[in-house]
Amino acid sequence: SSDESQDDDTAIAALVSKLPTREGWSQTLVLYKNYWIHPLFLKSILRLHTSFKPRHDDITLASNPKCGTTWMKALAFTITNRSRYEFDNNHPLLTRHPQELVPSMEIPRDTNDDLKYLEALPSPRLLATHMPLSLFSRYWLVVYVCREPKDAFVSWWHYANKIGGKEHSTTDGLESALDMFIQGFSPYGPFWEHCLEYWRQSITSPDNNVLFLKYEDMMSEPVKHIIRLAAFLGVPFSTKEEEDGVPDEVVRLCSFEKLSGLRANHTGGTIRSHSMVLDKSAFFRKGMVGDWVNHMTEVMGRKIDCVMEEKLRGSGLVL
Ligand code: A3P
Questions:
Q1: Tens digit of pLDDT for each residue in 101-141?
Q2: Which of 97, 130, 194, 225 is catalytic?
């Protein structure tokens, strides 16, 4: 009932208000179960715990922010809907932002009731989240996309500057952002913990229900990984489709060049992301592997490498 959900909201707000807070990345984050999360997103996550009903055929796209979420949304949407839409004719991606086509579970939408919105989506649902795996209440299929941390860091820094706006004019310098990042203080951070949780699940789960992908692998051999992705999602490409070059067409339609050039993704549009209104182009910057060298010194780069080496040691994960 709405009374119960109001009680929940009150309890959640009380809980969140008692958590440690820290300012950075043009926002204030709270620390919950070892992760730094924006309080609005954390409230949504806690509400999902009590009220979200997962379905057996849900597909969840998970990621650290700035690691290729938008790209993965476009790819998974195109792959799972390829019998419904032709690629060059009225394809939804040509007129709608990938962020709009695949909802992020914990990011409040314009509608007042996000849970009702998720509930109303037809099966099979394609959903996205930045939640750490340990904050899921239940899940079936998860695709996780990870990215080289120096590039992810540089991407975050640019993005934080964009969301900074007037309210948050004290944008952190690159050096101080780097210090925060390697302390584990970044949105949904520590970055490495987030990756490690999904990584461990992907290599140990007997159900084989987490697919772990890397941005760099997908950039260097997109077709190969798109084929893996389709198989994992339960909609493998047929031999005929492969012969006809369908995987290549998916890659082309979802490429940075194609998507960033579309009016729908850059012109005059905005996307609401909690209290902030973002330009649609904020999700497309360079789409490059190794761009960190254009922003950081070798010494700064090594700082991230050292922390990652230490934190990932023994896990089998190399980023
Ligand atoms: P850069 O800032 O390095 O360019 P997210 O979608 O998780 O927020 O990640 C954003 C990053 O992915 C940005 O990285 C963005 O440019 C890049 N990106 C967006 N669309 C892409 C695509 N279709 N292919 C490759 N990279 C893409």
A1: 999 999 877 666 778 889 999 999 999 999 999 999 888 89
A2: 130
Q: Are strands 59-63 and 35-37 parallel, antiparallel or unpaired?
A: unpaired
Output the six-digit token pair for 7: 């009680």
Residue with the two structure tokens 């760099």: 216
Q: Which are the contacts of 293, defined by CB distance < 8 A and separation ≥ 6?
A: 301
Q: Which residue has the tokens 């994992």?
A: 232
Residue-wise pLDDT for 287-318, tens only, equals 999 999 999 999 999 999 999 999 999 999 99
Atom of ligand 1 minimally distant from the CA of 258: 23
CA 112, 116, 118, 121 torsion: positive or negative?
Answer: negative
Q: To 5 degrees, how large is the angle CA 245–CA 144–CA 281? A: 75
DSSP 26: T
**Is 130 one of the catalytic residues?**
yes
277 is written with which tokens? 């209104």
* 3-state secondary structure string across 53-74: CCCCCCEEEEECCCCCHHHHHH
Query: Could you tell me the pTM of the whole model?
Result: 0.95
Reported in sequence order, the residue ranges of 33-186 that DSSP labels E, i.e. its strands, are 35-37, 59-63, 126-129, 141-146
Question: Which residues of the chain form beta strands (DSSP E)?
Answer: 21-24, 27-32, 35-37, 59-63, 126-129, 141-146, 210-214, 270-273, 276-279
Q: How far is the CA of 256 from the centre of ligand 1 (A)?
A: 7
Dist. CA 28 → ligand 1 center (Å): 24
